Amino acid sequence: MSVHSHPAAHEGAAAGFDPSRAAGLDPASPPEFPRHVVTAVLVSHDGARWLPDAVAGLLGQDRPVQNAIAADTGSADDSARLLTEALGPDRVLHLARRSGFGTAVDEAVRTAPVLTPEELPYLKRPSGWDPVSRSWRDEAYDLPELPHGEPEQWLWFLHDDCAPEPGALAEMLRAVENERELGQDTQDIAIIGPKLRGWYDRRQLLEVGVSIAHSGRRWTGLDRREQDQGQHDQVRPVLAVSTAGMLVRREVYERLGGFDRRLPLMRDDVDLCWRAHTAGLRVLVAPDAVVRHAEASSRERRTVDCVGRTATSPHRVDKAGAAYTLLVNSRTAVLPWVLVRLVVGTVLRTLAYLVGKAPGQALDEVAGLFGTLLRPERILAGRRKRGKPVVEASETRPLFPPPGATVRATVEQVASNLVGRSDAEVTAAGRHGGAVESGPGGDDADFLEIEQFARVKRIARKPGPVLFVVLLFVSLIACRALLGGGALAGGALLPAPADASGLWSRFLDGWHPVGIGGTESAPPYLAFLGFLSTLLLGSSGLAVTVLLVGSVPLAGFAAYFASRPLVQSRLLRAWASVAYAFLPAATGALAGGRIGTAVLAILLPLIARAGVSASGLAAPEGARGSWRATWAYALLLTVTTAFTPIVWPIAAVLGVALLAVHRRDLTAYGPRFLAALGTPLLVLAPWSLSLLPFGFFKEAGLEYGTGAASALDLLGASPGGPGTVSGLLLIGIVLAALGALLRGQRQAAIRTAWAVALVALVFAALSNGSAWAGPATLAYGIALLAAAALGADGARARVAEQSFGWRQPVAALIAFAAAAGPLLAAAGWMIGGADGPLQRRDPVQVPAFVAEESGTQDQARTLVLDSATTAEVSYTLVRGAGARLGDAELAAADGTHERLDRIVGRLLAGSGADQADQLGGYAVRYVLVRDGAPRQLGRTLDATPGLTRLSQEDGSALWRVDRQVARAAIVPKSGDPEPVAAGPVELHTRIPAGKEGRVLRLADSADAGWTATLDGRTLTRTTVDGWAQGFELPATAGRLDVTYEPTAGHTGWLWAQGALAVVLVVLALPGRRRDVDDDLPEEPVVPAQAVAGEGRRARRLRAQGEASPDGPDGSDAEGLGAVPAQHTPDQAPGYDAWQTPAPAGADQGAYGGEQGYQGGQYGSYEQPYQADPYQAGPGGAGHSGQYDPYAYGGSYGGDQPGYGQTYDPAGTVGSGAPGEADPAGRGDGGYAQQPPPVPPQSPPMPPRPPRGPDSERPDGSQQ
Amino acid sequence: MNRTTVSLIAATAALAAVTGFASVNAPDGGDDAAKTAKRLPVERTSLLCPEPSTSDLAETSYTAFTPSSGGAVSGGKAELLPAPKVLTDTHQGSKDRTKGLKPFLTQKAPGKPVTGEESGAEAPALVGSADGALAPGWTVQQTTTVSAGSGRGVQGANCVAPDTEFWFPGASTAKGRSDYIHLTNPDDAAAVVDVELYGRDGSIKADVGQSIQIQPHSSVPVLLSTLTGKPYTNITMHVAARSGRVAAAVHSSDDKLGGDWLPASTDPAPSLVLPGIPKDATSVRLVAFAPGADDADLKVRLASPTGPITPAGNETLHVKSGMTAAVDLGDVTKGEPGSLLLTPTEDAVPVVAGLRVTRGKGDKQETAFIPATSPVGARATVADNRAKGSTLSLVAPGKTGRVKVTASAGTEAGEPVTKTYTVKGGTTLAVEPPVPSGLKGSYALTLETQSGGPVHAARMLELPENGIPMFTVQTLPDDRGMVAVPEAEQDLDVLQK
């Protein structure tokens, strides 16, 4: 296209426009389809960039227009001058800058004269005198007065950014004539439109007629980036055609009153055509007529300033136009439905835009809709003006998209956004003809495969799923005892509550009925578990099972997925993933019921990958870590901090180290550091603040066991405890990681891994002193594995090339140890079973009848006792059937209740006092002594007055407190308390009258949040027995209501926390793909770069290049996931086609083509177009074959979808002045500076143009 | 040296350093074993004194005493209330029965014993409770003198705290013996008690002994011979409260040999000490029982004043599981005071044991029972010591121990006196206990272990009458005035077992 965008090419040719001269015709001699008189109306607005092509297209028509008139709406650039030069000053109108398209057209039409046979003599019967032969021709007299019939006046609307192909007009007129030949009435053909193709990507279909859905969506019926292969090439009626190239009968246009004034730019075409339909006319599309359209306004390549006072977003104009068009044109019967669809669709789309981090578009959606809806008088006026349609609704129905089509399209779009955005194959397949699947190689041969097994085979060939399945299988065997009925419990894990609401209420409620009750903030991991349970249809048990039983396969899968940038070898990645999944910390977490470490095991590989992306260590020189990766890192860190807080200090230390590395760029990395580490503290507050400064060693669940590892265990990444193997078994991995340090290449990555490993090991040693060291050893293990994998990458070749000596046997030994260790651990795990203290069992922790009784209105509790020695005794005050997940932290946060401690101690000492009575004050009805407690304990309880031994089963012993026990009781001044029916927290009942001075006593600790009312009157709060909540009761009877109201701060903070979490997720999610990135201007060839979001194949190719012996050595600018910042296109099989023409020759060819164009006539100019542009024509070999953006994309973009999108913001997000936003000076005439395409073995490409910190790539950093 | 080698060395050094740090920081895990429970004074003490005698000639004196602890607790009261004998199973309102009862004996302050007298056969059982400052170490001695008839002699009983399980080795249903088990229920709810008897050949079927109901605040005496139907010379009786708690004591009276209270043996243990065999004991019978599933082989030794000796012919005792083993040791003491030490020969099998000691000859014999006893511990008290006739036997079965003996103020007059004794390991020390200066009435002895190994103690009270060496022996186990209060801590881990 460089040829066409060269302005100089047009100036000579277009100067001094004269339609007759341009057509090379005698005005007197008839053109093709002579009865049609076509007046072209070209509207320009800041379109100098495209205008030369547009004018050339207009003037280069095979069937020239009889008249042309241009309207320039106050262009700030060269547009007016270009038009004047091309058409002559008298054919150019100059309008105000804020004139809309409709206004401009109206003005132009009003100005343009209706050409009559007087002006166009060929329309008349030719005179009998032939001046050439100087003779009379008799046959002329036999002709009618108007030999071509009554002239039909047409208006041909053109934009400054649309270039008609030479045959466009002729084809449209031919469509009319064909109809006429078929005997149809052609007078009702009001409007004909061409097929629109992309400006830059000339095979891309933009529109073959458009329609409008009830949601306001502009419906083309085409797939995104659908390629034109003639699949839509038939003349057919459509609802509307675009104004770019629209051919409309002049009298129809005038009869309909032109474009609606309320539609200044967008959707005016749909509205006009719709009105034509309702007037009983026809609208056709003639796909043989082709117009290239840049869609400059809607693609934000120029400012839209014809609407409102300032520049407006085209999206908003489009939305407003769609709403208006629908509301004024829809039939009254469907209007309510349309209104509902519009509003609902807008809300949904606004949400989607918000999630996709496009707040501007979200605002446009809302503003566009409400800008229309809030002016109902305009709609009413519009509807009145249109009146009743003359045609039946059923006639126009086929013109609208079928029901559900928009929904399906949306689903496909979302799916492709989520899945296909980085998937090179999908886009590549799309180019090859719309096949959805083309297999890993993008190979057309795949289409020949037998379809039903193709998918299975493809999956089987992918190691990731296979690895997952194998690990899952191994896990299921190992976890055989952990499947089935009952609840997972044991070790650090308490049984999960019955459903997700139990988890949520533990997190959200202000009052936690645990022990004697408390108001402490709940641990936030409950919210995450609750969220997961909600996703799993409310089954909290399933969520816990998935996280624990599934932790090993999920960890392995995550490691495999996340290790993609690390090393190229799939075998190595699989080994590292297996070794990671079977790290002792992972199996130990499962055995010990440590759900925190299990979650960490799953997420740690993803954290590592996000962290590397955010750190910028893997980015090429000069590039920084992306903000999106930072937010993803912060999100993952937040989740894991909630489960295993120790990751936060590890991340903090590593973050400080990173800041030291990036000390030159503190302004960029300081905020990232603060965001990544501050977010967990903020989102998890106030719980997170309770961790500071030394609470980070604890983890989700019960405190179960202490540090169990020896120093050697820790060295081998084993935290000790049940379900773990000795650290010595994995010593091979440590040695392999040490050996990696000897590798010459990728030193930075290896050293980074080692730094992480050492920091994690220090934290493991620290935490081993007081707690289980699992989480830290997990981090240590993954860092070691990363280092080992980096070292093992290509190690065989390196070792082999050394002369034989001690190195080879040592390397072989280490390799064997590193490979055998995890396998042995896995085998042992599989045989021995994964259960340790963790088991499946009945979640009821007290005898069944006790659990049953505790649910009655007395809400009686059970004191559960156990002790190993007589010197220490542990107890728990149990409500209901037992403690559930999360209660351990809540109880711990509530702190010790010394009075109860003392009572229990005295009770077990047998000190003789009335402990039973005191227990009754805590609503304890039963005392349960666990099996294994000293016998003396049971003797003492037996000998305690007021306790009755009930039964003794499974070794535990149960006593009942012989006393009326209830959670709520009315305590009179003298006499026995009277129980009151109560719920677990609240209390709603009627109480009888009594004496003055009685007190309502709750066996819950006193708190200001308790409120009680008797018949609506608030009761005075008192504290009973120094701890229990009481209320002074009057003597009267009435309805008693006791509730707990959390403080406003608590509720408010929960909402804020939720909002923060949503914002964090939105920030961390991949951004929404801009819709305007399809048809892109040709870019200067850029180096392939190690962007985080690039396609996997591109990376693989690059890694190949890196790994190959003659490949460039990317030794410095890489970190963990680094790939060399160089591109060796010759490595890619997909480049073969591209390579066939020698690059240099292609280059010359391209420029030669351009020169030829410059100097050429229109004829030469047209030639490449008339010929199939994709055939290698003489001048077009370089021209179309080389510079065709599509062909180009087929080689580059096919492997690297991020490539094109990378440049998108530069062209589209910028200031709106297209030329200015062009980073490489691309633009009109900019191609002269374009660097040559990548030759094979080329030196490193110039770095990507610097971009501002805010211009986050919409796609480049996704995944 | 190139860079890779340097980095390898650096990483290895760092790994070694961190590993070294980890080995230093590793948990040693031995520190929580050192924790011991705090010892705190009890808050309330219950004591139950059985019905003293069925003889009209019985003269009973009660002496109650609480040693002064010097603790911070003050106030409180201690009183003994009569508990009527109830032979029916019908429940009568417990509240009504305790209401309006006048306390038989009330103690006002610690450190000074109080006494009360009863006579005749109608004296009721007593239920006592002490709280506040009077609770720790509260002791009540019940001494009955029956001058003639079956079971004539001195019968002394240390009122016992209610419990759920008692072992009585040494009971008998032989001809001429009439042994009663007195079961007293101090609580507001009825108690259900099983009485099981074990003879030489194992368990004796005694259906009557099952599910004996004891009404609140009442006492039930049961004649053992009604349970067996057949005479057994040596019986081990097991009293277990199925629900509630009771105090149990066996009153044994022999037509010829006099009688005494048979106190419960200490809890089954592999090694037992039966302290305080009087030097002039003419006959000593050892009765042992192994309640567990294993047979016990016991080494029998006598801790003489000079050291442990093994009685010839009775070096070991084989106790079959579930069967009562009895051996007559004769005059094993050979004129020297002693204590019997039972230790396992091989496996440590818990046993219970008791001694019947007879003094005197011909028809002037009197018996007393010495159960296996736990050591003095922190403090042990025995009340009702007279100016004459008390002998305190101290035995240290293992290491040498020092015991401080305090003679309290007299019931009427007298100043406390303190004396410290050292008991050599393996010996028995029989002394005349110190007597309060200016004593009038009776006094109490309080023993406190000062240092060294455990010391077991027994006090023999001699009240000879009509040439009959009437006597009774009370052992001095720990008074449980101070209890080990475990440190209670809320921990949800207890739910996970």
TrEMBL record, chain A:
InterPro entries: Glycosyltransf_2, Nucleotide-diphossugar_trans. Residues 1234-1250 have a biased composition (Pro residues). Residues 1150-1162 have a biased composition (Gly residues). Keywords: Membrane, Transmembrane, Transmembrane helix. Residues 1251-1263 have a biased composition (Basic and acidic residues). Residues 1-30, 1074-1263 are annotated as: Disordered. Residues 1083-1093 have a biased composition (Low complexity). It comes from the Bacteria. The keyword S-adenosyl-L-methionine does not apply. Signal peptide: none annotated. The chain crosses the membrane at residues 334-355, 466-494, 542-562, 574-591, 631-661, 673-696, 723-742, 749-766, 772-790, 810-831. Gene3D superfamilies: Spore Coat Polysaccharide Biosynthesis Protein SpsA, Chain A. This is Glycosyltransferase. The lineage of its organism: Bacteria, Bacillati, Actinomycetota, Actinomycetes, Kitasatosporales.
TrEMBL record, chain B:
Pfam families: DUF5719. Residues 1-22 form the signal peptide. It comes from the Bacteria. InterPro entries: DUF5719 (IPR043777). Residues 88-121 are annotated as: Disordered. Keywords: Signal. This is Secreted protein. It comes from Streptomyces flavofungini.
